[in-house]
Amino acid sequence: SSSSSAIRILDIFGFESFKVNSFEQLCINYCNETLQSQFNRYVFKLEQQEYEREGIEWSFIEFPDNQGVLDLIEKKRTGIISILDEQCRLRKCTDQTFVAKTYE
Fold first, then answer.
1. Does residue 15 come out as left (phi exceeding 0), alpha (psi in the -120 to 50 range) or beta?
2. Which one has a higher pLDDT value, 25 or 5?
3. Among 19, 38, 44, 81, which is least packed by CB within 10 angstroms?
4. What is the pTM of this model?
5. Alpha helices of 1-104 — where are they, by DSSP H?
Protein backbone atom coordinates (compact mmCIF):
# COMPACT_ATOMS: atom_id res chain seq x y z
CA SER A 1 0.00 0.00 0.00
CA SER A 2 1.22 3.48 -0.80
CA SER A 3 0.54 6.63 1.15
CA SER A 4 0.91 10.26 0.27
CA SER A 5 0.92 13.49 2.19
CA ALA A 6 -0.85 16.65 1.18
CA ILE A 7 -1.41 20.16 2.45
CA ARG A 8 -4.82 21.65 1.75
CA ILE A 9 -5.75 25.32 2.11
CA LEU A 10 -9.23 26.65 2.73
CA ASP A 11 -9.60 30.25 1.55
CA ILE A 12 -12.71 31.78 3.07
CA PHE A 13 -11.69 35.40 3.57
CA GLY A 14 -13.88 38.06 1.97
CA PHE A 15 -17.49 38.77 1.24
CA GLU A 16 -19.17 37.61 -1.92
CA SER A 17 -20.87 40.34 -3.90
CA PHE A 18 -24.32 39.67 -5.29
CA LYS A 19 -26.87 42.11 -6.74
CA VAL A 20 -29.17 41.12 -3.87
CA ASN A 21 -27.89 39.65 -0.60
CA SER A 22 -30.26 37.76 1.66
CA PHE A 23 -30.10 37.59 5.43
CA GLU A 24 -28.97 33.98 5.03
CA GLN A 25 -26.03 35.12 2.89
CA LEU A 26 -25.12 37.70 5.54
CA CYS A 27 -25.06 34.91 8.13
CA ILE A 28 -22.87 32.74 5.89
CA ASN A 29 -20.48 35.63 5.27
CA TYR A 30 -20.40 36.47 8.99
CA CYS A 31 -19.57 32.86 9.83
CA ASN A 32 -16.78 32.85 7.22
CA GLU A 33 -15.34 36.11 8.54
CA THR A 34 -15.40 34.75 12.10
CA LEU A 35 -13.61 31.56 11.04
CA GLN A 36 -11.02 33.59 9.14
CA SER A 37 -10.44 35.80 12.19
CA GLN A 38 -9.84 32.75 14.38
CA PHE A 39 -7.50 31.27 11.79
CA ASN A 40 -5.51 34.52 11.53
CA ARG A 41 -5.31 34.85 15.30
CA TYR A 42 -4.01 31.35 15.96
CA VAL A 43 -1.92 30.74 12.87
CA PHE A 44 -0.37 34.17 12.40
CA LYS A 45 -0.70 36.42 15.43
CA LEU A 46 -0.19 33.97 18.30
CA GLU A 47 2.44 31.89 16.48
CA GLN A 48 4.49 34.97 15.67
CA GLN A 49 4.24 36.14 19.28
CA GLU A 50 5.51 32.70 20.32
CA TYR A 51 8.43 33.00 17.90
CA GLU A 52 9.35 36.36 19.46
CA ARG A 53 9.19 34.94 23.01
CA GLU A 54 11.39 32.01 22.05
CA GLY A 55 13.82 34.15 20.05
CA ILE A 56 13.20 32.25 16.83
CA GLU A 57 14.37 34.11 13.74
CA TRP A 58 11.71 34.42 11.05
CA SER A 59 10.25 36.88 8.56
CA PHE A 60 7.14 38.63 9.83
CA ILE A 61 4.04 37.59 7.91
CA GLU A 62 1.60 40.42 7.18
CA PHE A 63 -2.04 39.42 7.29
CA PRO A 64 -5.30 41.34 6.95
CA ASP A 65 -7.25 42.14 10.09
CA ASN A 66 -10.98 41.75 9.50
CA GLN A 67 -12.03 42.93 12.98
CA GLY A 68 -13.71 46.00 11.47
CA VAL A 69 -16.01 43.76 9.43
CA LEU A 70 -16.82 41.66 12.50
CA ASP A 71 -17.54 44.79 14.57
CA LEU A 72 -19.89 46.06 11.87
CA ILE A 73 -21.92 42.88 12.23
CA GLU A 74 -21.57 41.77 15.87
CA LYS A 75 -20.64 44.74 18.06
CA LYS A 76 -23.04 45.29 20.96
CA ARG A 77 -25.44 48.23 20.49
CA THR A 78 -23.96 49.36 17.15
CA GLY A 79 -23.61 46.13 15.15
CA ILE A 80 -26.14 45.06 12.53
CA ILE A 81 -27.28 42.02 14.52
CA SER A 82 -27.71 44.03 17.74
CA ILE A 83 -29.68 46.73 15.93
CA LEU A 84 -31.84 44.13 14.19
CA ASP A 85 -32.56 42.45 17.52
CA GLU A 86 -33.53 45.78 19.07
CA GLN A 87 -35.73 46.75 16.12
CA CYS A 88 -37.53 43.40 16.13
CA ARG A 89 -38.72 44.12 19.67
CA LEU A 90 -40.44 47.32 18.59
CA ARG A 91 -44.08 47.25 17.48
CA LYS A 92 -43.64 49.75 14.67
CA CYS A 93 -40.40 48.51 13.19
CA THR A 94 -40.12 48.55 9.41
CA ASP A 95 -37.34 47.98 6.92
CA GLN A 96 -36.96 51.76 6.74
CA THR A 97 -36.66 52.21 10.54
CA PHE A 98 -34.08 49.42 10.68
CA VAL A 99 -32.00 50.98 7.90
CA ALA A 100 -32.28 54.43 9.48
CA LYS A 101 -31.07 53.04 12.80
CA THR A 102 -28.05 51.39 11.19
CA TYR A 103 -27.00 54.77 9.74
CA GLU A 104 -27.21 56.64 13.06
1. beta
2. 25
3. 19
4. 0.68
5. 23-39, 46-54, 67-74, 80-88, 95-102
